[in-house]
Specification:
Blueprint: E1 15-30, E2 35-51, H1 66-73, E3 81-86, E4 89-90, H2 96-103, H3 113-116, H4 123-134
Antiparallel strand pairs: 1-2, 1-3, 3-4
Length: about 140
């Protein structure tokens, strides 16, 4: 497919983001010539759907790939495999200029747990507050 062509997939029921089998393996280099001797799987086969007006939170232990997944969805890091559809358009292989247009419509908020968790509040009140505000 030419670089300027856009692959589309039919949107279903307000689906804004569709991620299928997304993965990222970072190369491990070694030896005198710094050849690739292996790889570290940071994300392996993640699929998810996010609908318009939906609040989506990704939670997991430190080092499980949350930030890598978010950066791949924005294409700040290139995925090793899988597909990313935004508003029905396959953005996985878009060039830098066209991707910049899509990023203006996307938002991921990375949180620092030390800055966002109040030790005087319960987890229920911390997680529940934004949900109550959003209705």
């Amino acid at each position: 497919m030419p670089n300027n062509a856009v692959k589309t997939e039919p949107t279903t029921d307000n689906l804004i983001l569709k991620v299928r089998d997304l993965s990222k393996t970072f190369p491990v280099k070694g030896g005198v010539l710094s050849r690739i001797i292996g790889g570290v799987k940071a994300v392996d086969g993640v699929s998810l759907d996010i609908h318009r007006d939906e609040i989506f939170g990704l939670v997991g232990e430190s080092g499980c790939g949350k930030t890598t997944l978010g950066r791949m969805i924005l294409r700040l890091i290139e995925p090793s495999g899988g597909r990313i559809f935004f508003d029905g358009i396959d953005i996985t292989d878009l060039d830098r200029h066209r991707m910049r247009v899509f990023r203006k419509r996307m938002q991921i908020i990375f949180q620092d747990p030390f800055g966002s968790l109040n030790p005087r509040k319960t987890i229920d009140s911390i997680v529940g507050e934004p949900l109550r505000i959003a209705g």
